Amino acid sequence: MKGAVVLLSGGVDSTVLLHWMRRRLGSEAELRALSFDYGQRHAYELEMARVQAKRAGVREHRVVPFRFFADLIAGASALTDVRSVVPDGRTLSQEERNQPPTYVPNRNMVLLSVAAAYAEAVGLPVVSYGAHQSDAYGYWDCTGDFVRAINVVLAQNRRKPVSIDAPFVEWNKTAIICVGMELNVDFSATWSCYRGIPPACGVCSTCRERRRAFKEAGVPDPLETAMNGT
Q1: Domains of the chain: total
Q2: Which end of the chain has fewer CB within 10 Å, C or N?
Q3: Which of 94, 116, 104, 131 is nearest to 41 (CA)?
Q4: Is the dihedral of CA 44, 78, 90, 9 positive or negative?
Q5: 153: containing domain
């Protein structure tokens, strides 16, 4: 593979993916990263993305201004509407777990489409993103079926087809953290909390998933240490 574009949010999964791709491709391959400022309430993750892109030695890291998206989908997601409440992960009903209030309508298809256009323009054949099995319960755009379907569409390109790569799609978050430890990823420079409360609220669904994954991996989470003030 001559190189790849990585969707980099600044969270655990995309950060591990970035460093994993660097190892997979080798130091000489062209690695680029795209992040999106789409009006997410936890926009601090973009600062973490900048840190991690620099550490991975990417050729280019671009933060794409996309804040119109939050206005376009106004009220449809707790991640882009500050008037909505990001729920405690313990209070989600079964129906809400199927598609949680933190789901952002069609986000991954939109962002991957933009990333595919960028990859085609700079001559790279692959866009990688950090979809994983632990998110498949409530986010249809983090599944293997979604990846296969979007690749069918992208394969229609007549000259410079770009494919979507989701190497962690069958992995759970614990496995991703274990790989990150092998790669010496600095997890203190990642962001997960959907409420955007430094260092983390500790109760939203993504905070709980992060805590559980680190516990299962048998390693301390530096953000947990910060939350406990130690």
Answers
A1: 1
A2: C
A3: 104
A4: negative
A5: 3-227
